[in-house]
Write a structure and sequence with these properties.
Elements (H helix, E strand, L loop, with lengths): L5 H5 L4 E6 L5 E6 L6 E6 L6 E2 L7 E6 L6 E5 L8 E5 L5 E3 L8 E6 L5 E10 L2 E8 L5 E5 L4 E7 L5 E9 L2 E8 L5 E3 L9 E6 L5 E6 L7 E6 L4 E6 L4 E7 L5 E8 L2 E8 L4 E5 L5 E7 L5 E7 L6 E6 L5 E3 L17 E6 L5 E7 L8 E7 L13 H8 L3 E5 L9 H4 L7 H18 L2 E11 L1 H12 L6 E5 L5 H7 L2 H11 L2 H11 L12 E6 L8 H12 L4 E6 L9 H19 L2
Parallel strand pairs: 31-32, 31-33, 33-34, 34-35, 35-36
Antiparallel strand pairs: 1-2, 2-3, 3-4, 5-6, 6-7, 7-8, 9-10, 10-11, 11-12, 13-14, 14-15, 15-16, 17-18, 18-19, 19-20, 21-22, 22-23, 23-24, 25-26, 26-27, 27-28, 29-30, 30-32
Helix pairs in contact: 6-7, 6-8
Length: about 600
């Protein structure tokens, strides 16, 4: 079989963040078609979109202002995640709104009359996010809430007199409240015991109810409704899987969301008046960013699968006609080479069943080299989506396995907490049992198994090669943590509290960190290592990479290091990605290639 270069896989573009214009005749979305995420616009009577924004930095999101054709966008510099807000007009001109580049700004929507926007920012203190509103005529900014915590504006109440706000307690626990703009008082709506999330909230048409997704007092996230006058909480749809991505129609009669069945999405439309549920068929993949058209007759969403990279699809609700409306990801050179995975399970050391996606190359034979890719988070989940470099590895003849080790989301609260703090290394041990499964059931060459991961997955790579060094023929760490102690000392101040809930704290767990941190066990590493990092990373400081690279170089261990000066925690620019993953592919070919 002919092999294709990594460039062809990385040149596959993506489409995201679809939003209908107020009249519904066109959709704005973000695509990296030019190599950098920009706003494009598709009219329903045209077959190809037009570019609307022309910036030198990535655009993170786009939304319309209420009762206006003006769009608001978010943009940072060098992928440093210090998002600023701008108005974008039809000529591609930008009007700066926040204009405080040293701070982060999270958008919270526009008022019903379109005259104000809301956002949160850590302007007052780097560790805390206060709430602001801004007049779009005068650009006047008013601080409306101050608190020593992590607060965000979710949206405006239909009356325009309240803001729906969120207090983030941990990554897995939050509360929602109504902030009265006239008085600054907050009525908290979701007071609860134990851990619970309350997400994707939407008001009813009269503003008296709140539809949302929650896992309050249960293992999985379901669909619920809160009566705002009494705070009464009741369920509308509960399943043995998480529900995700709730959206409401403009007339508030329909709810749309997805069911996450082991990393694969199933779409759902819930008719509130008829109390009926409608689903539609899609290939194996993931549905995100569902949005209704202004006339509520259509549903646009992003669909991403291993064989159908991220594009926007549209479902006509009356005819059930499903249509792909963007084709920015289409690449005839590779589309017939893309491979769907098999969903497998393996038993770990304590008999716990661990799910994983196993991709077999089309040329699979006995003793195949394997790349294990570990997701970040750790409160996250590997999904059945297109991944350019993993598909490239398959084309090169490698098998690929992407496990959701203990600690992953999507399998209930209990499963997510199985790797907390002192149980951290149990998830690393899961990887060793995956290796045994691959040898016994996946035709893996025991001498050619590599491990790769990014962010927290990078820690998993470093932990695996330091604590189980004999298993690995090669390792790739992308923006990974080499020491929880130094990571917590240097990560963004507002992020530290969130991470301590998962990893532990320096004050209470330093001794444990010293036992497990890869930086203290570099002498045990046997596998050659490749490491990549962006200099502007606000999440995992680049020192995490450079301290372990320096240690390995001092003892002449084979290590390759690529530092990107104009990237952050994510590599956004096309040429940088080509450089990164061409180098990774060459590294794998050198150490585990046939």
């Amino acid at each position: 079989m002919e092999t294709i270069g990594v460039k062809q896989y990385l040149h596959v573009r993506t489409a995201e963040h679809p939003v209908y214009s107020p009249c519904g005749e066109k959709i704005s979305f973000i695509t990296n078609y030019t190599g950098l995420p920009q706003v494009w616009e598709l009219k329903h009577d045209e077959s190809w979109p037009a570019q609307i924004s022309f910036t030198e930095e990535r655009i993170i999101f786009v939304q319309y202002i209420s009762k206006s054709n003006l769009r608001i966008i978010g943009m940072d510099v060098g992928v440093n995640e210090k998002q600023q807000l701008f108005l974008l007009d039809d000529r591609g001109e930008l009007t700066p709104l926040t204009n405080s580049p040293e701070h982060i700004h999270h958008y919270g929507g526009s008022s019903p009359d379109g005259k104000w926007i809301a956002w949160s920012s850590n302007r007052r203190h780097p560790a805390f996010f206060d709430l602001y509103i801004q007049n779009l005529d005068t650009l006047e900014i008013q601080k409306v809430f101050t608190g020593d915590g992590l607060f965000e504006v979710i949206k405006w109440h239909p009356s325009g007199n309240w803001l729906l706000i969120k207090k983030i307690n941990t990554n897995l626990d939050n509360d929602l409240g109504l902030l009265q703009l006239a008085t600054g008082e907050v009525k908290w709506l979701t007071v609860h015991e134990g851990e619970a999330i309350f997400e994707s909230p939407h008001f009813s048409e009269d503003g008296k109810k709140l539809y949302l997704l929650s896992n309050k007092d249960c293992e999985f996230t379901g669909l619920a409704v809160i009566e705002l006058s009494t705070n009464n909480f009741s369920w509308l749809d509960q399943r043995e899987w998480d529900l995700e991505g709730l959206s409401t129609s403009h007339n508030k009669k329909l709810l749309a969301y997805t069911v996450n069945e082991g990393g694969i999405s199933k779409g759902v439309v819930f008719n509130l008046q008829e109390n009926t549920i409608y689903t539609w068929k899609t290939p194996i993949g993931v549905i995100t960013e569902i949005t209704f058209s202004p006339d509520d007759k259509k549903l646009a969403y992003v669909f991403n699968s291993p064989t159908l990279p991220s594009d926007i699809w549209e479902l006509h609700l009356t005819s059930s006609l499903l249509k792909r409306i963007t084709f920015v990801s289409r690449s005839p050179i590779i589309e017939n080479l893309l491979i769907e995975p098999e969903l497998i399970e393996f038993s770990s050391f304590d008999k716990l069943k661990i799910p994983a996606f196993f991709y077999k190359p089309k040329t699979a034979a006995d003793n195949v080299p394997v790349v294990i890719f570990v997701h970040g988070g750790p409160e996250s989940q590997i999904r059945a989506v297109y991944n350019p470099f993993l598909q490239y590895f398959l084309n090169r003849g490698y098998a690929v396995c992407t496990p959701n080790v203990r600690g992953s989301t999507g399998y209930g609260k209990k499963y997510t907490h199985l790797d907390d703090v002192r149980k951290r290394m149990d998830s690393v041990k899961d990887l060793t049992y995956l290796v045994e499964w691959l040898k016994s059931n996946g035709n893996a060459d025991p001498e050619k198994i590599a491990i790769m991961g990014r962010s927290y997955g990078g820690f998993m790579v470093l932990a695996a090669v330091t604590h189980y060094p004999e298993l690995w023929a090669a390792a790739i760490d992308i923006v990974g943590i080499s020491s929880f102690k130094t990571f917590l000392e240097k990560t963004s101040p507002w992020r530290r509290k969130l991470r301590e809930a998962e990893y532990g704290s320096i004050e209470q767990d330093s001794e444990f960190f010293a036992q497990i941190d890869p930086i203290h066990h570099t002498d045990k590493i046997q596998a050659p290592l490749m490491v990549l990092h962006g200099a502007n990373d606000p999440r995992v400081p680049i020192e995490e990479t450079e301290q372990i690279v320096n240690e390995l170089r001092e003892r002449n261990h084979p290590v390759q290091y690529i530092r990107f000066e104009d990237e952050g925690h994510f590599f956004v620019k096309l040429q940088n990605n080509i450089t990164a993953y061409t180098s990774v592919a060459d590294f794998l070919d050198q150490y585990i290639g046939r």
